[in-house]
Known about the structure:
By secondary structure, the chain is an alpha/beta fold. The protein has 9 helices and 14 strands. The longest helix is centred in the last third of the chain and has 32 residues, at 247-278. The protein starts with 8 loop residues before the first helix and ends in a 7-residue tail after the last strand.
Amino acid sequence: MIQNLHGDSDLITREYFDSILLETRLIGSDLADTHVSIFGKEFENPITTAALSHLNSHHPEGLAEMARGAKAAGSLVFIGMGEPAETARVAQSGASVIKIVKPYADEDLIFERLDEAKRVSCFGVGMDIDHTFSRFGGYDNVMGFSMNAKSEADLRRYIARTGLPFVIKGVLSVADALKSAELGAQGIVVSHHHGIMKSAVPPLYLLPKIRKAVGDSLTIFLDCDVENGFDVFKALALGADAVSVGRAIMTPLRENAAQGVCDRLLEINGELRAAMARTGAKKISEIDPSVLHFFGAPKAE
């Protein structure tokens, strides 16, 4: 049973991750291959960067340096807020980049950000719907930019704008996952944006229900409180196609630039490969959820 954590969604999510334990299946197992296909492109690593923003305090080249490290690790890159020039610098890293746009109140700004992402050859685009509302019931304001609610018609326009794969970030219900598929999105990020709402259900808990509901109609990324390769394994076992890490790569970026990011992503990937080898999965598609055991927290049905 999850302890009384006073509604801290990050702590609740961390406790849920840690409540899931793994059995071993060693006979007949071998070294694991972690290649994965995302939107028709193959990546060596199913671990992506989270849609981070404002990393210049960690490194002078911020997101672009992060992207260089992720590319070297064979990872897909998500990025968040940033001016068009910064998006261009990230794209010039050679990484496959998905630009996530905030739900700005200014529609022209949304279209500018989407168009710029296409112009600089981003791999995909998306929208961060979980930054629509503030913690106090109004529309959010992020770094001086006003947000507002987006209708289904609005989202259809954004999805149709670029022709690129479109990812809706901040999905935390079967209802929104099904709507995302109906609207024409190609992917979703199951996430509570590191506790943007108190008492949010852990993304990992809802993941099996969302996967069952949408089938193969959406590529599913999981975000929030992912710290190591065993967390990644659990998410992949429960239905994610890829898993995003953010805070785990920020200190390595600050301490050792792109090489630090690369090394940390490869370290997490090594932990994932260890979990796969010890549970009999030679490739991602062979990860078997029946090796998971839920202690002290309910299993999603």
